Amino acid sequence: MKRILFIFLFVLSVHSYGLAQGIGTWKSYMAYDNTTIVAEAHNRVFAVADGSLYSYGKEDESIRTYAKMKSELSDIDIRHMAYHPELKKLLLIYQNGNMDIYDEKGFTNIPHLMINTSIADKEIFDINFQGDYAYISAAFGVMMLHMGKGEISNTYKLPYQVYATCIRDNKIYAATANGLKQASMNENLLDPSKWESFDVSFPKGNAQNVRKIVLFQDALCFLMKGAGIYYLKADGTVSTLLNATDIQGMTLQNDKLLAYSSSRAYISSSLTNTQTVNTGTIYGISSIKENTYWIAAGTEMLKGIRQKDTANDFEQFLSGIYIEGPRINRAASMIFDRGRLYIAAGGRGIDRDNTHGTLTIYDTEEDFAEDAWFTFDRKKIKEQTGVDFKDILSVAVDPQDKEHIFASSWGEGLYEFQDRELVKLHDKDNSALESVDPKSRHYIRVQGLVFDQDNNLWMTNSEVAHPIHKLKPDGTWDSYADSGNDLSGSERYAVDEILVRSNNHKWVNLERAKTGVGVYVFDEVAETDHFFPTFKTRNTDDGVISANAYYCIAEDQNGEIWIGTNLGPIVIPLPEIALSNPENLYANRLIRTGDDGMPALYMDGVTVLTIVIDGGNRKWIGTDGHGLFILSEDGKETVEHFTAESSPLPSNRVESIAINPVTGEGFIGTDKGIVSYMGGATEGRENYSNVYAYPNPVRPEYEDRVTITGLMAESNVKITDINGNLLVQGKSLGGEFTWDCRKRNGERVSTGIYLVIASEPNRSESVVTKIMVVK
Length: 775
Known about the structure:
Helix content is 3%, strand content 46%.
């Protein structure tokens, strides 16, 4: 089993990573923790875990993952999958009705149902192959897909849900919410009146509970919810094939009827001969090879079992597959610290979200190691603390020790870990943290976490008398109540993030409350504070910004404060006067020239959930419903705008962003999974001791794009040929500069060696590196 795992890790790394990710490229970091669908193909076994596709090589034992990327999956969240063994094609159907067909030539997208506005409810129940067609049973009726052409042939809209179909003797039979139906294939099936009732008398239950029909040994077989499997005999009577009330699914493959409950598989070779196999957890079963069966085994991933020489004896030959990655497709907050990505996959509401506590560490410097991903064991933590580990919202890493981390919970308080083991749960009984209900351990609502320059850990504590606390390095606590009670009390639902500015002032946003959302600024040393429920503005006519929610705060490299609101981003250009001259503190909204040539508010009304500053001082802005924006340093230009429709983003709700300052890779956390985008801006280095170019040599398959990294911020960069002729020049974006292997006139350079000359703005240092270009 170790050999299988090793091969998997190698293949996955080749597929997803590489030594140097190119500027403008994407990676996928989806969860593969719970396998629920399986389909055996000729050379590989395909499986779906947490809505994502992977496959296992039956001969080479390799594992491959597939992502929503160019030339791969067209969408996310696969809900149905089936393999056509004669055509050697795999059909995938997504939650939104989008479809892909996969074969040896690659993926073909069929978006017909997804974009069909005349069909509101696109829920799919079943796939049945008949010849070259896939009959797709759905909430709206039946859809015929020609598997060879990749085209929708017919859509039969019916006034009831269709759970499954089956064809026999030129008749189509359907299990529906209105009972069993039948129709001649020679009739106009677009006419609902042609679908007549098909009366069958079952020993127990009724026809409205039939969820699957298959033709097995020339008999119609029916899976009835809560009653077992029955078949229709030639004389019109019904007999019991399998008397089991817990059957969850049924399929016909390789001339055998395969059914399963939550822990057993039932394999029928005839209407009177059924074998029972105790498989453990099972969500699906598939088989196209005689006496070999593949099991979708939940958190045990994929299992393989086969029948031994003894008829009723089965052995398990594959189990224990594990795919590195996050455990769930959610990222409420993320931070990047010293080569590691920290993911808090929790949630919160006015009360509790009750999301299982998922706290994950991804060591980006250990891509090929088996332990590159680590998720804390919530069951073990519960045993140690006596309370559920859930609703984890934020992470902070000790600046002095990266193995010492803290995680906040919207209910249980503050978790402290050392070397990936729980040290302590700080709650109302052993710390300064307060509970909304003094008698309960489950209402200690801690959200934002951040360390200051003196290694103090600051945090917010909602709906209590002291909404801000400080845990000092010596283990003692200080607590703070705002002077105007603007953050305190039970009506303040969400005292959210806390930012320690470069001048050591603390900024806190109040995301939502019954009254008075806003931003709070304080300085514990000077004992001054101020609450800003609205901001004056100098670049709009109304004179005031009255947001209904303040979701995030960030300080850029120029010291300006960027705030995400329900009205879009706002910018505070002079934050240093917030306490000394609060009456004159103002904020700007972004103004662009509209299509009519007139000034207009940019991103007006867009809810901004997160803002992160990259090495080039650009603003990465995650929104609720509008995807990801990357704005220029001053916000006047949109560098990139990505949506789920135009990019590999899993969702248009971007909840968190974290950027690797060394590589410029931006990790984007959505409510449906994590991806990353190589933005091309890294933090400038202190010197030129580690400058290099990648890829190097630059071959045609790299799309003529090379990155020079390791530069000092705002370096002057020149690229010349070997004779010193200047080809291009410009400034680095943070610590990186990209070149498209072209001269200033757009002509591609020839094969050869080219020189990179870089100097800092005052030209006190310079460096030369070489690039080999292959035409």
